Amino acid sequence: MTDLPEDESPRRPLRPLAPVLRARERGENPDLIERANRIRRHDAIREKLKIRAEGRLLVLGLFFLAVFGTVGLRMGQLATSVPEEPRMALFGSTITSARADIVDRKGRVLATNLHTQALYAHPQDMIDIPYAVDELVRIFPDMDRERLLARLSQEGRKFVWLRRTLSPEEVQAVHDIGDPGLLFATRDMRLYPNGHLAAHVLGGASFGDEGVRAAEVIGVAGIEKAMDERLRDPAQVAEPLQLSIDLTVQAAARKVLQAGIDLYEAKGGSAIIMDMHSGEIVSMVSLPDFDPNRRPRPALKGDPSDSPLFNRAVLGVYELGSVFKIFATANALELGLVTPETRIDTQSPLIYGRFKIGDFHNYGPTKTVREVIEVSSNVGTAHIAQMIGPTRQKEFLGKLGFFEPTPVELVEAPTGRPLLPKVWGDLAGMTISFGHGMSSSPMHLATAYASLLNGGTKVTPTLLKHQGIVPRGERVVSEQTSRESREMLRAVVTDGTASMAEVPGYYVAGKTGTADKPRPGGGYYKNRNMVTFASVFPSYDPKYVVITTLDEAKVFAAGMERRTAGWTVVPVAAELIRRVAPLLDMRPAIEEPAATGIREARNSN
């Protein structure tokens, strides 16, 4: 018996012996038996192959069904999903120019991103470089022809930046040159649609990391820099940053302040309008200013305060003069040392060692505390400061925020630190009581006046609009001291040095301040000063504090040149209040209501 392969079973012989023998006995052809057996065997093989082929076709069909099902499901997901703009990857990194808008307290746009075109060149593709350079210089007069020609003609150079941003008119003019080597790339830039308005608040933006077709937009100053991380946060980029600034009030304040600077021939000035209860800054103007769309370069020499980039409201640290006198009287009232009717020695001059303190006029031997503020007596205020003492004076001014930079949301704010005397003794305490020997910014002054006169609770200045309830600050003086201080400041307007501050129906209360500017080498200029008017309105229930300053203002009036605050900055502040009060939804009162105490405004509008 022959051995069979392991994978094959024994086959039936095609010519079995028994059937062949029987066929021969019957006279039949034995070959027919072999043929029949072969046919049966082939039929079995074909059936087996057919079953195998059908199984393979079934598996292949199921495979294609799964593939097309997966593709169809993915297409359905893409069709029903929210489309997203893919970020452009350049040189292995992601550059995004997304940046949130900045809006005012009523939702009006102060800063936004704008699609623009950048211009670059491939010198190897340019047809006529000298002609293209001539045309580019015609379109962009600030380009240096020789330098640009040298850059484009440099051997082996394949890429040259020409312009980071273009206006639509400039894009068309470059198109008209018709050179294939001048190419454009779409990118975003920062746009400030209101130009100069709120320039020092916004600061400005520029390009950070950049590629040919994308560039980061980053803040370089102001709130753009201070809030840069929030403005670039992908999770918040669709939500505008809302400021406390009111655009219409800002426009009116800037116009009035500029008119005052022109009228009184001042070098510059500032104006701050702040909500006395929430600390929200409704307007902040510093002049001269600039257009943040074309932010100038910082000045490398000269007085930095003369630069339009200098924010006088926050960075301007000055001796502010007699506006400080109310702090000395309020301190003495709070300590129980005096009442508004206590009589104070005002005999001029006050001699302290080898130093003399005098007044603008001789006010006689004594005045009441109320009259000391009303006529602005340096001598009387110095005597009050002696009663308080330097230790308690420092503690009181510290409560009002005069020892630290203001926390307002500007990148420049930390540098606006007050300048304090090295030795705070009795003499320093006396001079500081009437605003000399210590320098601070108008923003410090606005915060202190608001805290003192709003009922006596500390406020924190902010450029961000409060959402919801404003937390109450710590108490700095009693409500009685706050009320008596307001009454004394009201008398300054009705009967004292700020008579030109009266605005019918708004009952302005305030204090003038005239401070000679210090010389760099020591001493003071006789014909250069800083004039300030610190005011609140209405005095019986104040809502807003207004701080106005002018630098080296002067006017010829009543037969002589006048440089004091009462003649210069006070009329500007009065006009400012007259213009902005209706914009702040404040109606003039026909008669002054009876004083019933401060009505706290805790909800932000």
Describe what this molecule looks like in 3D.
There is one protein chain. The protein is an alpha+beta fold and 605 residues long. It has two domains: 93-138 and 158-242, Penicillin-binding protein 2a (Domain 2), CATH 3.90.1310.10; 249-583, DD-peptidase/beta-lactamase superfamily (Beta-lactamase). The protein contains 17 helices and 20 strands. The protein has helices spanning 17-25, 31-80, 129-139, 145-153, 168-177, 199-202, 222-226, 228-232, 247-263, 325-335, 369-375, 378-388, 390-399, 426-433, 442-453, 479-495, 569-583, and strands at residues 89-90, 93-94, 102-103, 109-121, 160-166, 182-191, 204-210, 215-221, 241-242, 268-275, 281-287, 343-345, 350-352, 355-357, 366-368, 509-518, 524-537, 544-551, 555-557, 560-562. The strands form seven sheets. Strands 3, 4, 5, 6 and 9 form a five-stranded mixed beta sheet that branches. β1 and β2 form a beta hairpin. α12 (378-388) crosses α14 (426-433). The longest helix is centred in the first third of the chain and has 50 residues, at 31-80. The chain is elongated.
